[in-house]
Design goal:
The protein is of the alpha+beta class and 620 residues long. Helices cover 49% and strands 15% of the residues. It is built from 21 helices and 19 strands. The chain starts with 7 loop residues before the first helix and ends with a helix.
Amino acid sequence: MGTTVPTSDSSLHVMLLSLSGVLCLYLAELLSLPACIVLVLVHVIIGKWFYTSTVFPKALFPILIVAVSSLEVGRIIFQGREGIVPALRDMIVILALTRLIMPKSGREIAQLVGITFSQCILATIFTTSPLFLIGLLLQAFFIPIVLDQLDERSFMGPGETTRSRPGRWIMVWSSIIVMSCILFYLIPRPSSALMRGALVHRSTIGFSEEMNLARSTQLEEDSRIVMRLVWNSGKIPEVVYLAGARLEELTADGFVKHGETLATESVNVSQDRLSTDHLTIYPTGIETKNVFFPYYLVSVSPGATISQGSNVYWMKDPPPMYDIWVTRNSSDQGTLITSVPDELLEVAGLGATIAGQGTTREKASRIAEYLKKHHEYTLDGLTMPVEVSPISWFVFNGKKGSCEHFASALATMLRGCGIPTRVVTGFLVNEFNPSGNYFIIRARTAHAWVEFWDKKWFLLDATPFALSGAVRRVSLIDSLRFTWIRWVIHYSLEDQITIAGYLARSPWSVRERLELVPSAALAGILLIPVVVFASKMWRRKRLGPYAKVLQALEKKGVRLDISQSHEIHVQELLRRNPSLGSLFRNYLQTYLPWRFGNQDVDIFSITENLIERIRESSDT
């Protein structure tokens, strides 16, 4: 295939297509903003000075492929798994830029289309943002145009241009979008947790299964979203204490998991799900195998979990979403511990003194109120002597601390009254988005609180910061983002079954719809001739002038090969019909300057006059 001479329109479309690939990588956060700006400037330079350049020979391209591939393979070997994505990104970007500055025939432009589309595919794997749709739509817009310009003879008749056929592109793009949506939502698919696991922005900020207060650090106000929670059934609470780990073993420095519990395969409790609350959790920014749930867990789906004491863990990588059923009342006592290490006996004694006489819950309430009144909440890092227990120092000296200090002190003081306690770590959820009816869990809401036993477990929080119920913050942007994650990123076979079940249960059931099929089929059959006629009329209107002339000649029995030149067309027509050949030659003397020289003439009226003369002529 010989080297083509790209028109200004085709080169612009190719450059914009390449830039859409760069935009996809940027919106997927695979490119930084400075890198994206640099690549845009490089595209501008190439488009202005090097797009049609023949300075670089074609033979250089395979050499560059081998060189770049070798370098990126070396990076993967050196950096391990962390280097795979940057290596793929850099190799694709370099190949695209290299192909842009090389001499380009149709084959090379087709290769560039494939390279650019691979950028879109790479970005698809590593993004959950609906903003990625911008780059995807640009690709869907420019790829058909560029491919169309590679083979005008297949897509258009002589004399037509892409601009003369806007209706065609509306049909093409609409068909792409409609068919893609239909196939996406109808074709069954397995769970794609393996691929979607890469979409999670890994973060463990705030949440921990270990509470070591001796390691005092500055806590960050991280507003990143780590989970979203949909309350499907049951009364939605104002505030949700979302537990991730329950810590029973008290040490001088804090709480840890009870060491004597063995991991066993989790078995769902045989309890009627109708009497429980049903929730769906979408982790998007936390890496942990803990199963998070409020209240007391009844069952979880998918059920590939194990239990270790009072905690539940995923056996493999956490799924991108999971359903849980919880009950607000449970008599499962778990591990009951009241022991206190020697270093904390004084703290435990203070708890017994403050609690006084009364019921277990009255004693617990007095101790919690004491801590709230006499101690201050802070996120600042604390300096404390190493020879003193941080819990003891917080209670008697520092009187400032984080939620972990308050929870540890409260649990220790309750044990001084002989009350079994455990510390729970997780998230305190109070941000509700009414536009999407779901809770938002941020990294900064990581929290610790206490559960104490009095014939069942009761939740108690002594941290003094005030929560005035749920914060109802309308966020249409996050609602759109969550809708994208829910119905695109995490759409699965289970969702298809759910939608089918919903349609079957709707007032206008599927069976009632099926009764309309015969009538709809009859109406469709009657509409076919109308659609065909309208299509022909529309197609005739959007043909270019030269194509209309050739069509009129073909109806008179003169079929001209569109791959041949205008001169050959004239010679053939003169041979078969001299009078029409003469009219056709005169027409070309007007048409060609209009087509290629932008001469200002009313070519459409001239074309209609010629077509009328052709119709009136005798058959050839």
